[in-house]
Specification:
284 residues; four-stranded antiparallel beta sheet; alpha+beta
Length: 284
């Protein structure tokens, strides 16, 4: 499968970065159900500029088909029989610009100049609550010079304020819940930073995907899917990561949306129990 373009929103194409990188990404799910069920999975890399999918394969469940949702994310719809099912996915991808791009002089885009399709990323969503965190955002960051530096200040604060604790949150945890608890997982770091940005009228969206440990000193945590976010500055979307707060190499985007509700790893219609879960993201 060759490189395909992304017809998604304004500012989608990113600036040139580092040299190309070849990666193998994928996952394995063990699922158990007492009755037939339908499941939607988002694990395949998003089709976008700068990403070439050389080959990919699904294994396990037989009845499934692909579609693209309203945010441009690739989804796989499965018909699962009662009992145990194992679903696997693997893809070999090449990133033409593998390293995060850092552009500290980038200014904000005034609200009056934001494209129509970007405005929804300033609004509250299920897990990102700029209306409830607005006073805190303006007190902490309102006096800072608008632009990249102010967003980085938000990232620095969230990175220090939240302690990463596996299992600290659940699928219903909001940015406000994480803020008050002072701990969370990577999606909570992203939700809180997004909420602060939106409170300052800076468009921000949730991103979910594979993040290999390239150039990162050990010891390594068990591989999992990762969450970060993107901010619309000066007419383009830019990557920020409140969980890691350091430039990384090899991000492979699976999905983008208002928050984690738009890019759920598995959405099931019928009871499903996850019995096995492995994620892979390695340099070739």
């Amino acid at each position: 499968m060759g490189e395909m373009g992304d017809s998604a929103p304004s500012g989608e194409k990113e600036a040139a970065g580092a040299d190309a990188a070849a990666l193998t990404v994928g996952c394995r799910f063990g699922l158990e159900s007492g009755q037939p069920a339908v499941a939607i999975m988002q694990v395949a890399p998003r089709l976008q500029a700068g990403v070439s999918i050389r080959d990919e394969r699904w294994g396990g469940a037989e009845e499934h088909h692909s579609y693209v949702d309203q945010y441009g994310n690739r989804c796989e719809r499965f018909e699962l029989a009662a009992g145990s099912t194992q679903v696997t996915y693997e893809a070999h991808v090449v990133l033409s610009h593998a390293a995060d791009v850092i552009e500290p002089e980038t200014p904000e885009t005034p609200v009056g100049e934001l494209p129509d399709d970007v405005l929804s990323f300033v609004m509250p969503s299920r897990f990102c609550l700029p209306d409830e965190l607005g006073n805190e955002a303006w007190e902490r960051f309102g006096a800072l010079t608008p632009g990249w530096g102010r967003v980085q200040a938000i990232v620095d604060y969230v990175h220090e304020h939240l302690e990463f604790v596996a299992g600290a949150s659940n699928p219903w945890t909001t940015a406000v819940d994480a803020y008050r608890a002072g701990q969370g997982v990577c999606r909570d770091f992203a939700h809180l930073a997004i909420s602060f940005c939106r409170a300052l009228n800076i468009p921000a969206r949730y991103v979910f995907g594979y993040l290999p440990d390239i150039g990162v000193p050990g010891p390594y945590e068990p591989m999992d899917f990762a969450a970060w976010f993107e901010v619309y500055l000066d007419g383009r979307w830019h990557t920020f990561d409140a969980r890691n707060n350091t430039p990384r190499i090899g991000r492979v985007v699976v999905g983008r949306g208002r928050d984690a509700i738009d890019v759920a790893l598995i959405t099931s219609f019928g009871p499903l129990t996850l019995t096995d879960f492995i994620v892979r993201a390695d340099a070739d």
